[in-house]
């Protein structure tokens, strides 16, 4: 439907649906709507830059550890399998941000045109969104197991589990992109304000939920259950021991599932309203606002990394040394009192493993910071 560009039209946006023609008419004639699309791309730039800087910092720390310990995973290194899972999760946030950045072209053109650029955006969005969800689950699972059941996984078994997770997730993402796009005609294309999975077939419409939004809420559920269990146990221990540091760590841990749910809830809600067969549907402006909040997930994750003090093993050696004395004073509250001579004692505060068998001048707590977020 054509829209005459007036002062009123810039303030009162038309009702949204999933018809690309409706969106294209709105984009072409509505400066406010095009500005919103451009803002989405700008938020994507902020997230991409923030995540890229964090990836550079963590890579630098990993190189320092390699030089210090003579390898990537010796027993006295703080780098743990969860460190790699966290790194890949943040990489997925950068891919997700790239998909948002490509929206800038549609803001300047005033319409979405299909082609290789459009398909690239759709693939980046699905790969980044799904990848962030699955690696969020992977980090939560690894965190939970190593923190609540420290005796279940040895360091070598933890590496094997992390490797299996990485291989399976990447294989799953590859298949979820390749199979539908090669078997369903016009699977990726113009969806209104950007490119994603189209509504050209019943299968494609179902896969909008089955291949993306279902994973969002699966990740949210898993993180709430697993991190929530850890938080409750830490709060009990902090209250019993009057441990302020552990209380702070418990509160910090709780922010991860809260932040993730806050990122996915608005976009999930507007999509649900859009995909209903009938009834009130959100205006285009609300759809873009929800997309902007979702596109900020990379920047939010970086803020959590900075503010909660959780480094997932990417800490400076001096920072680890300063924490060691406090870390190995505690014994695991979750698994019962472990004897001082046991093979390893997990610090519930940061999920670290202190092994009395590690000797030498560089013996330290393995501060893998098994608490995680992720996106």
Description:
- It is a single chain.
- The chain has one domain: Rhodopsin 7-helix transmembrane proteins (Rhopdopsin 7-helix transmembrane proteins, Up-down Bundle), CATH 1.20.1070.
- By secondary structure, the protein is mainly α.
- Residues 1-17 and 320-375 have low confidence and may be disordered.
- It has helices at 7-11, 20-29, 31-69, 81-101, 104-109, 116-148, 155-183, 202-241, 244-275, 284-295, 297-307, 317-327; strands at residues 188-190, 195-197, 345-347, 352-354.
- It has twelve helices and four strands.
- The protein is globular.
- It is a multi-pass membrane protein.
- It comes from Hydnum rufescens UP504.
Instruction: Characterize the largest beta sheet: strand count, sense, and whether it forms a barrel.
Output: 2 strands, antiparallel
Question: Considering the protein shown, what is the CATH homologous superfamily?
Answer: Rhodopsin 7-helix transmembrane proteins
What's the end-to-end separation, in Å?
A: 37 Å
Name given to the CATH architecture: Up-down Bundle
How is the largest sheet built, in terms of strand order?
A: 1-2
CATH topology: Rhopdopsin 7-helix transmembrane proteins
Number of self-contained structural domains: 1
Percentage of residues in helical conformation:
55-70%
Shape: globular
**Structural classification:** mainly alpha
What is the average per-residue confidence, as pLDDT, rounded to a whole number?
Answer: 76
Any idea what the radius of gyration is?
Answer: 23 Å
Query: Strand-and-helix sequence, N→C?
Result: HHHHHHHEEHHHHHEE
What is the class in the CATH system?
Mainly Alpha
DSSP helical segment count: 12
Note poorly predicted spans: 1-17, 320-375
Q: What proportion strand?
A: under 5%
Count of extended strands:
4
Transmembrane segments: 37-57, 84-108, 131-149, 161-179, 214-235, 255-274, 286-307
Subcellular location: Membrane
Main location: membrane
Protein name: Glucose receptor Git3 N-terminal domain-containing protein
């Amino acid at each position: 439907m054509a829209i005459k560009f007036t002062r009123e039209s810039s303030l009162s946006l038309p009702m949204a649906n999933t018809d690309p023609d409706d969106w294209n008419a709105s984009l072409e004639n509505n400066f406010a709507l095009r500005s919103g699309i451009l803002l989405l791309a700008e938020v994507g730039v902020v997230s991409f830059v923030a995540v890229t800087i964090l990836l550079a910092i963590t890579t630098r720390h990993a190189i320092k550890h390699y030089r210090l310990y003579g390898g990537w995973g010796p027993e006295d290194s703080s780098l743990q399998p969860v460190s790699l899972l966290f790194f890949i999760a943040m990489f997925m946030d950068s891919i997700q941000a790239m998909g948002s950045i490509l929206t800038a072209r549609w803001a300047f053109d005033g319409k979405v045109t299909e082609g290789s650029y459009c398909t690239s955006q759709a693939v980046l969005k699905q790969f980044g969104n799904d990848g962030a969800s699955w690696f969020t689950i992977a980090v939560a699972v690894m965190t939970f197991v190593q923190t609540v059941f420290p005796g279940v996984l040895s360091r070598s078994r933890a590496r094997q589990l992390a490797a299996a997770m990485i291989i399976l997730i990447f294989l799953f993402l590859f298949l979820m992109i390749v199979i539908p796009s090669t078997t369903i005609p016009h699977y990726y294309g113009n969806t209104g304000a950007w490119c994603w999975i189209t509504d050209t077939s019943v299968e494609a419409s179902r896969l909008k939920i089955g291949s993306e939004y279902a994973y969002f809420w699966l990740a949210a559920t898993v993180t709430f259950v697993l991190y929530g269990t850890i938080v409750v146990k830490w709060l009990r221990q902090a209250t019993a021991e009057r441990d302020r540091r552990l209380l702070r760590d418990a509160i910090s841990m709780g922010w991860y599932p809260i932040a993730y749910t806050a990122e996915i809830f608005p976009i999930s809600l507007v999509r649900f309203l859009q995909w209903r067969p009938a009834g009130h549907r959100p205006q285009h402006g609300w759809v873009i606002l929800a997309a902007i909040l979702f596109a900020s997930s990379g920047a939010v994750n970086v803020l959590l990394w900075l503010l909660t003090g959780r480094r997932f093993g990417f800490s400076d050696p001096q920072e680890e040394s300063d924490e060691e004395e406090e870390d190995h004073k505690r014994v695991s509250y979750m698994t019962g009192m472990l004897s001082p001579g046991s093979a390893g004692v997990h610090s519930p505060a940061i999920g670290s493993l202190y092994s009395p068998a590690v000797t030498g001048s560089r013996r330290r707590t393995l501060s893998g910071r098994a608490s995680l977020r992720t996106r």
